[in-house]
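Entry type: protein chain
Record version: 2
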Amino acid sequence: MTRKTNILILFLVASHMHATNNQPRPYGNKPIVNHNINRVAPVININNQNLSKQLFLKITKTIKNSISREKIQTYIHEAFEKYQGFFQRHKLRILLASLVCGYSTILYSLTKGAAYIENNTLWSSWNHNLLLEDLLGINYHELSNNLISAIQARYMNPKNPTDFLTPLMQFLQAIKIEKKKLKFYRHLYTFLDKTYLLKLFPCKKTSFLKISERLQRLHYIENVFSFWLSQYKIKTNDLYHKWKKNGKGKK
């Protein structure tokens, strides 16, 4: 018999022994009595579970031995030659498809980036009616109070309007994401411009030229927020020390 036939026979025997082991005995472990000849049949204890395990290990070992390294290497070599031949026959189509996919991806990124930059709801567009120079001329206290009011209005939780800290955390997260996206679109635009590939893509160049100014505005807004936060901590500490002092005085 062939090796495959031996493996199949061993597998069937192991399955049969496993099924037999799981079936309940009608008389438990009691001896079988033959009433016709009044003799007690001897009980043969066979550990079917161990036998099934041994057969399973033997089958696994046989299969493992049948799959040699040479066969695996031969299979890999044949598959490599097959796909290499496919690429050789269709290399022009694959090249064209790759170019089309790459061009479409870059064009989509540029279109999406231009729309993102022109979004007036971004924090880099906050007070977009004012130039950066005009924004820098506003008093820090006034500007910081306006910023906190805008943050609370945008991220206010309707279920908990008195929640003051969560909007501040959401603002910091939004600033972080916005800076990351703006830097990505700036790197993409700069790379295409330096490699003279930008001419191949129809895009709104004026939008990408605003990125540097938008990043400067974000940086300034972060400084304004940091200023307000430091003032808030100072006021909170002063109130705490006054309360503590008054409390001790009463005692």
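Comment: Residues 25-46 have pLDDT under 50 and may be disordered.
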